[in-house]
TrEMBL record:
Record bears the keyword tRNA-binding: no
Key words of the record: Signal
PANTHER family assigned to the protein according to its UniProt record, in alphabetical order: LIPOPOLYSACCHARIDE EXPORT SYSTEM PROTEIN LPTA
Domain of life, source organism: Bacteria
Protein name per the record: Organic solvent tolerance-like N-terminal domain-containing protein
The species this protein was found in: Halobacteriovorax vibrionivorans
KW Membrane (keyword) present: no
InterPro entries on file: LipoPS_assembly_LptC-rel (IPR010664), LPS_export_LptA (IPR052037), OstA-like_N (IPR005653)
Domain Organic solvent tolerance-like N-terminal: 195-304
């Protein structure tokens, strides 16, 4: 199935023109020379469509279309259409200021206030390209997406310089100045913000991999590392919801009940965050600086707004206040 077959039908409501681009050298110019030139058709208020089993499967609306009949390339003004393929359960709708379709190469390019959307995701950018052969959608410039998962009660918003979306395996990659937020629909559940150089989100597995200058921001905690992960389905489970790897640094404001707040700082090679239990587990030579104390161990557990620290030194377990 392909969007490129909507050229089986064309409606033009107001005006249609046909012209050729060649220099006339005389009425004796041969037919072969004429056929070597580019031939164009021009349409206004256009609807492209393809019929399959007497049903419209694809369509594209545009204010103006200039079609090169030689190369089968169309130049679009104010395109608004639908992408349908064998991998997506829902059609994806797009809008833009201008666009180009290469029918032979099955390639679509859009520019200017580009929007691609379906019931679960909305993506905006300065420009977009789509290849029907590779099933890749690439967004360039001020890319931002918003996607919802109603079963797990969360919404993800991400902004980046560039974004690529593989429709066949539902992998979404963000590159350059990536910033985002996972928002919970329940008011009492904490949101989590994140930053990275690049992020790959697997929509089918519902997880995200972050790399390069990774930072997590949650409540009064800021954690940074080289790499990280988010497991989107584990928010209310006794499983890690997020993890950081390589040169982990934590800065936290602790506000114990009935006591003045204080700063806590920690370092480790690995961090695992458990949202349901409101705890952080530090692994890999962790150390914690709290007030005037320095704590070390194989595993250290920190809990939100609780001064007590749990330390496992491999020989004995103990708690320090």
């Amino acid at each position: 199935m392909s969007i490129w077959l909507f050229l089986f039908g064309i409606f033009a409501s107001t005006y249609m023109g046909l012209f050729v681009t060649y220099n006339t050298t005389g009425i004796d110019e041969s037919m072969n020379e004429l056929l070597d030139q580019d031939v164009y058709s021009y349409f206004k208020n256009v609807k492209y469509f393809k019929m399959s089993d007497k049903q419209g499967r694809y369509h594209l609306d545009a204010a103006e279309v200039s079609q090169n009949l030689t190369t089968n390339v169309l130049i679009l003004t104010e395109p608004s259409g639908v992408l349908i393929n064998d991998y997506q359960s829902q059609p994806m709708y797009y809008d833009a200021y201008t666009g180009v379709i290469n029918v032979n190469k099955k390639y679509l390019s859009l520019r200017g206030n580009v929007i691609l959307r379906d019931p679960n995701i909305r993506i905006e950018s300065d420009s977009m390209t789509y290849s029907d052969n590779s099933q890749m959608v690439n967004f360039q410039g001020n890319a931002k997406s918003s996607s919802k998962n109603f079963d797990a009660a969360y919404e993800i918003e991400v902004g980046a310089d560039n974004l690529s979306y593989n429709l066949s395996n539902e992998l979404v990659r963000y590159d350059g100045n990536v910033k985002g937020k996972v928002s919970r629909t329940r008011a009492y559940e904490d949101d989590i913000k994140f930053e990275a150089n690049s992020i790959v989100v697997d929509k089918s597995k519902r997880n995200a991999n972050l790399s390069g200058n990774v930072k997590f921001l949650k409540s009064q905690l800021v954690a940074s590392a080289r790499n990280g992960e988010i497991y989107l389905d584990n928010y209310n489970k006794k499983l890690k919801y997020y993890a950081l790897y390589d040169d982990v640094v934590i800065e936290e404001t602790v506000s114990p009940k009935g006591q003045p707040p204080f700063k806590r700082k920690a370092f480790s090679e690995r961090l695992e965050g458990f949202m349901a239990e409101e705890k952080i587990v530090l692994l890999g030579l962790p150390r914690v600086y709290q007030k005037k104390d320095l704590l070390r161990g194989n595993t250290i557990v920190l809990r939100r707004d609780i001064e007590t620290i749990e330390v496992d030194d491999a020989n004995t377990n103990f708690k320090i206040r």
